[in-house]
Amino acid sequence: MKRTFLILMVFAAVAVGASLTPGFSAQSSQSRSDASSELRIDLNTASATELARLPGIGKTVAARIVSFRKENGRFQRKEEIMNVKGIGEKIFTRIKANLFVAPESKSKKK
User: Fold this and answer.
1) How many Å apart are CA 69 and CA 87, to the nearest integer?
2) Model pLDDT for residues 46-67, shown as the tens digit of each residue
3) Alpha-carbon distance 48 to 73, whole Å?
4) Per residue, what are the HEC states of 80-100?
5) What gap in Å lies between CA 91 and CA 110, rounded to an integer?
6) Single pTM value for the model
7) What backbone torsions phi and psi does residue 52 show, to the nearest 5 degrees?
8) Distance (Å, rounded) from C-alpha 12 to C-alpha 93?
9) Domains parsed from the chain with CATH numbers
């Protein structure tokens, strides 16, 4: 009986401590999700630093995206980012709402 009570007290202390920890709540993780969903990045103009802000994209993959763009030209569709090593369907699904491909400006088409 004492053992059960002790286990419940430890569990309660951990639960209370976790809820008092700054940044530890379902709402804060939701806020991070909302912040990333507000992020909109043009695949053809974004720097590696900007691309690295996407969820699941670090500095290395961001640099690969920029290199891919330099070697292969402009992205025509955002799905083409899956041709970059390190970006599969799972990551694409997480970031696709943050990506767009702006039409090429007429002055650059000449």
Assistant:
1) 14
2) 999 999 999 999 999 999 999 9
3) 16
4) HHHHCCCCCHHHHHHHHHHEE
5) 35
6) 0.64
7) -65, -15
8) 37
9) 45-101 (1.10.150.310)
